[in-house]
Amino acid sequence: VEEELDPEAAAIAAKLAQYRGVWVFIEQTEGESAKVSWELLGVGQELAAKLGVELCALIIGHKVEHLCTEAFAYGATKAYLVDAPVFFHYRTEAYLEACCHLITKHKPEVILMGATGMGRDLAGAVATKVATGLTADCTGLGIDDKRNLMQTRPAFGGNIMATIMCDKFRPQMATVRPNVMPMPEHKPGAVGTIIREDFTVPEESILTKVIEIIRDSHNKSAVDITGAEFIVSGGRGMMSPENFAILHELAEELGGVVGASRSAVDAGWMPTDRQVGQTGKTVRPKIYIACGISGAIQHLVGMQDSDMVIAINRDPQAPIFEVASYGIVGDLFQVIPALTKKIREI
Ligand code: FAD
């Protein structure tokens, strides 16, 4: 039995039905792609299959056609390419114009972007201009039986997971943090269609000019923990910055890096680029060793998708043990040096 819609609902349904296709914004800097874009093509494949539509890459830049080939290898079947000198550096105004032009012309149903500096900036501006909804920092995406994008993200300080949908507007927009979605299979040689969009923006209409790019030289020791295969993380239980030396020793033996909970970062024991969690980085290493970390939900959302979690905590009730593959109840100042010694012997 077909459900009868009231005229207002029928008008909305007719408007929404004009929008088709899942788009992933391929973030790049000087032609080099951001890994999160490929992760989004992975989840995009599932969403496109459920909706029965094409998975498309949205590529904006200058001399970036090579990214179309990569997008096809990661599962896109179509690439919308906007390639002009004015798009060489990311500038909100120019990219915003290009995105809105394409959205108005092709009407995608879903648009995904990385929750990076660029993605967060662009997605907010685009959603405002095309007057649709945006869910930032999603950790899960799905499709319901009415073609709505179910967008899950932590809410109320990470204490609950909220599932949000945008059922009256299209496109449905979401940003997703790097490392939350698994990388899809890379199939070199996969083919797709490139739609070259002859679109540009007059340089003089853009208020922002990039004069020079200065790499951050203050933070020479900055470490990208998001790509590490082994992470040894310390929390408040480490008691002092000096005590992190035992974590560095263990991490070195494993060929990994040292991470930290927010308490350890807030105490000034570790730099902010090492923080794992809701307001830090999301990591998915092969092994995550949590040392003196209680396992607050805001920490767990950043590491619970690791292949293996080993927790060392002297409190047997610590919530970290709920996500741990292996748990050691004991004093970390005894357990960690013993573990490092054992690994050295192997
Ligand atoms: P604690 O909770 O104090 O735990 C210390 C643990 O060490 C205890 O379980 C204790 O049993 C154990 N311990 C102590 N001594 C020893 C020993 N000798 N041997 C073995 N175990 C020992 N937190 C994050 O980590 N990342 C985030 O991104 C983040 N974002 C947040 C965002 C918001 C909006 C809010 C409200 C909070 C956020 N937090 C975040 C903070 C989070 O709620 C917790 O406060 C924090 O994770 C606790 O850090 P911890 O586990 O190191 O410290």
Automatic annotation (TrEMBL):
It comes from the Bacteria. Keywords: Electron transport, FAD, Flavoprotein, Iron, Iron-sulfur, Metal-binding, Transport. The keyword Methyltransferase does not apply. Belongs to the ETF alpha-subunit/FixB family. This is Electron transfer flavoprotein subunit alpha. It comes from Pelotalea chapellei. The chain holds residues 90 to 435 of 440 of the full protein.
